[in-house]
Amino acid sequence: MPAYFEKFPYYPALRTRPAEMLGYEKIAEEVKGALLPLITLGAWPKQPGVLTSLKIAKAAVGNRPYLLDVTGEPKYQNPELLALLSPEGSFNAWRKFVQTDPLAIPVIQMPVDLRLPELMRQTRELAKSAHERVAFRLVNLAADTPRAVAALSTLDSADQAMVIVDLGLVAKEMIGKCIVDSVGAINQIRRDIPNAAICVMSSSFPSSVTKSFDKDSGGTRGSIPILERELFEEIGADACLYGDHGSIHPKVSAASGGRYTPRIDYPTAESWEFERRPDTDAQGYVATAKALLNSFPEIRRNESWGAQKIVSAAAGLIDKMKTPSSWIAARVNMHITRQYYLSLVSSLPADDDSLEE
What we know:
By secondary structure, the protein is an alpha/beta fold. It has 13 helices and 11 strands.
């Protein structure tokens, strides 16, 4: 595998939304220093243009490299973002935009109707710029994979590119198909580019937790299996690198006001465990935090920002943690931190027990 991209054991994908950026910002510096996040640029709430989103994303990442994409979701677009998606001049506007930050590794824009010569030109031009590296994000594997292979072939070295196989939302019944599709794309790429760096990412966090309630809990608690890691292990660490959507559903609805149910999610190695308190106000977060600490006392020993917010909430300290967004940030923070350490273990040779407890 190319030396540059294999240095990063985990590729979390996030959008420029307040909860996701806060959760990432609060990750410990030593963890962030080992990650290569994929940031998808979208409109910041109540702010025009795109510079606010970029500024906040860069502050969250710090003075480190990151992969940069631009959203195609209409609810998070504005005129400036739409201009970046103009295919004119082989995405000339996008190329000029990303070249303003040498730490950004641009994602190649490849809509289905983009002509292959234009895709190849965009790839060559970005790879010749200050970045020297680019990324391909494959969403429609059947259509995107052969085009990415053709564009990859224009580069001087395979080390210049990362190929992200983004499966989006996965469910238990989809695991088999996802494995077949992923392995098929990986093999298709490696037939022509043997040393290609490939990351497979997905998300299994649901749009609603109602189907995950524990029986007889009255809707106060539940457990959601984390399938991303299971999928990755089935494909094999020797075949690809690990990525996920940072415990966020791939298709996020725009924030809305109104009533909400206080809920706190705690990511373990295998699942997201949650407590919720229907028909309560923000004080319900105190009760949910206490219940989580009672079930998972190891939270007190977890040094991540999100885990310590649970400890504080259990003590009644919920200042700045009274909204669903704030607790999504906590979940993102805990999930990415845990997945980083799991990635370190999964990248070890089978006979290396140096990180075993």
